[in-house]
Amino acid sequence: MATDLISTATAKLSNFVDGQFVSDGPEFDDINPADGSLIARVAEAGPEVVDAAVVAARRALGGEWGGYGVRQRAALLYKIADGIEARFDEFVRAESADTGKPVALASRLDVPRAAANFRAFADVIKTASLEGFETETPDGKHALNYAVRKPIGVVGIITPWNLPILLLTWKVAPALACGNAVIVKPSEETPATATLLAEVMRDAGVPNGVFNVVHGFGEGSTGEHLVSHPGIDAITFTGESRTGAAIMKACAPGVKPVSFELGGKNAAIIFADCDRDETIQQMSDAVFLNTGQVCLCAERVYVQRPIFDWFVSAMKEKAEGLNIGWPADKATNMGPLISKAHREKVLSYFRMARELGATVVIGGGVPEFGDARDNGFYVQPTILTGLPESSPCVKEEIFGPVCHIAPFDSEEEAVAMANDTAYGLAASIWTNDLKRAHRVSRRMNVGITWVNCWFLRDLRTPFGGVGLSGIGREGGVHSLNFYSELNNICIRL
Ligand code: NAD
Ligand code: 6OH
Question: pLDDT tens, 169-201?
């Protein structure tokens, strides 16, 4: 039933190499997680397709694209953003079909952000400054040092399935802004919007070979071919920490630069003086948005004891109010998980929580619909309490609509619990005490701290994590610093 949900041009999802759609070789299924139906067949890119993409990308760097100035590149990025918006509904349908996410969410978050990513980096590259130093020399004369930016070359971009077009364009846009050629490998679970983006690139007049898409799996497949290809100059990756480790190993022999945005086990600290209505409203999103499949989601919630009972029951009420349904239904605000295998993983944590004596405040199982959604991969929104901090449910990333809520008494205790993790992506602090907000934020061992908000983005700010959550920062000028090489020129005056 779901083939009508995506563009007819993508009913068979092809690789895009050197400006052409190519689909020889083996195929795999693209499945709709809402009902388990087949959306499309996808062409898997073998080593020869990856190789052709690398050759095309290198040729593009030495051709017309290599001669584009900053203003020309920025104008092209604007045109790509316009092209995404011109096909807005197709992108929304394709993204919703691939992920099961509500069309309401894809329309509000994923697709607008894809267009915004291109505009943001067009603006960043046009306005970015470069370093310059006047240096004193021993003879009393001077030298002038200044840096120029050059593309790194061919950038491999590997992305996950949770926010497919948002995360892919978050990397493609700065890479193109800096003048690179890219080969993107979207997740095997969500190949559709990257394929649509190839059509947008072609129609916007992006020169052949500048943007290539190769579909396939990770280990032993397209992802591995890409990261180990000697013609790739840098790898930027978003996904699981374990995959990041494997990619790092593959990049080591060529000493290829990597930028990694990896997993999280993010803490929220709710102080008793918070604005209760606002906090509960936004914490519901922080736990359940995108069925909890956002790397920034709060799976560990620490609540000051005087408001602990209130918070648990208010979150339970929020979970009860979620509309779990068909993604196309405008009233739906929670869809399925991405796949059967991922649901098994999430359910295994629910089982483990029960075995370890957790209180399951709500959820913990699979909803029943009595229609085709029973063939999909839904789980109930779930709230747990009463687990020891050492429990796997509190230590490991579950990546589902679930949180564990624990009480704390002092600020010191909350900070210690929040920081007791191998991850370090994001934290949120909920308080009306300004001094405490500043004090606690600085003590979070993470890349991003939100105060009285969550997932509020300004695309110019540094984004990334510490520990198992990643390497490097992207966003604004930080992206330019990864996607370009700075060449310092020293001139004796
Ligand atoms: P994943 O690591 O399984 O897969 C991500 C991508 O890597 C896919 O395209 C996959 O095919 C590819 N891949 C897998 N093994 C590979 C290998 N050996 N070599 C090359 N490529 C390989 O991640 P996922 O399950 O798709 O996504 C969920 C994970 O992503 C979660 O851990 C989540 O926290 C993380 N994530 C992090 C951020 C962030 O910004 N920090 C954002 C989104 C998702
Ligand atoms: C993880 O699932 C979300 C990552 C978000 C971003 O990288 C972003 O730029 O908003």
Answer: 999 999 999 999 999 999 999 999 999 999 999
User: Which H or E element spans position 328?
Assistant: none
Q: Collect all residues with Cβ–Cβ distance below 8 Å to 468 and sequence separation of at least 6.
A: 241, 262, 263, 422, 423, 424
Classified as helix, coil or strand, 245 is helix
Q: Which two tokens stand for residue 156?
A: 């491999």
Residue 167 CA, ligand 2 centroid: distance in Å: 6
pLDDT, one tens digit per residue, over 419-441 is 999 999 999 999 999 999 999 99
Name the closest ligand to CA 117: 2
Ligand 1 atom with the shortest distance to the CA of 189: 26
Distance 373 CA to ligand 2 centre (A): 28
**Nearest alpha carbon, ligand 1 atom 11:** 218
**Could you give the CA distance from residue 178 to residue 191 in angstroms, rounded to a whole number?**
25
Both structure tokens of 484: 């370009």
* Ligand 2 pocket test, candidate residues 463, 478, 482, most atoms within 8 A of CB: 463
- Catalytic residue check, 453: no
- 3-state helix/strand/coil string of 349-376: HHHHHHHCCCEEEECCCCCCCCCHHHHC
Query: What residue type is assigned to position 405 of the chain?
Result: I
Question: Looking at 295, 297, 393, 403, which residue is catalytic?
Answer: 295
Give the pLDDT confidence score for residue 11 in this predicted structure.
76
For the CA of 455, the closest atom of ligand 2 is: 10
Distance 307 CA to ligand 2 centre (A): 30
Q: Whose CA is nearest to atom 6 of ligand 2?
A: 167
Q: Which among 261, 299, 397, 474 is annotated as catalytic? A: 261
What pTM did the predictor assign?
0.96
Mean pLDDT by 10 residues, the chain (493 residues): 42 95 93 97 97 98 98 98 98 98 98 98 96 94 96 98 98 98 98 98 98 98 97 98 97 96 98 98 98 98 98 98 96 97 98 98 98 98 98 98 98 98 98 98 98 98 98 98 97 96
Q: How big is the CA angle at 335 (ends 329 and 340), to the nearest 5 degrees?
A: 135
- H or E element: which one contains 190? none
Instruction: Estimate the crossing angle of helix 70-86 against helix 111-127, to 10 degrees.
Output: 170
The three-class DSSP label of residue 119 is helix
320 counts as catalytic: no
Non-local (6+) Cβ contacts of 390 within 8 A are none
Q: Which protein residue has the closest C-alpha to ligand 2 atom 10?
A: 457
Take atom 9 of ligand 2 and give the residue whose Cα is closest: 170
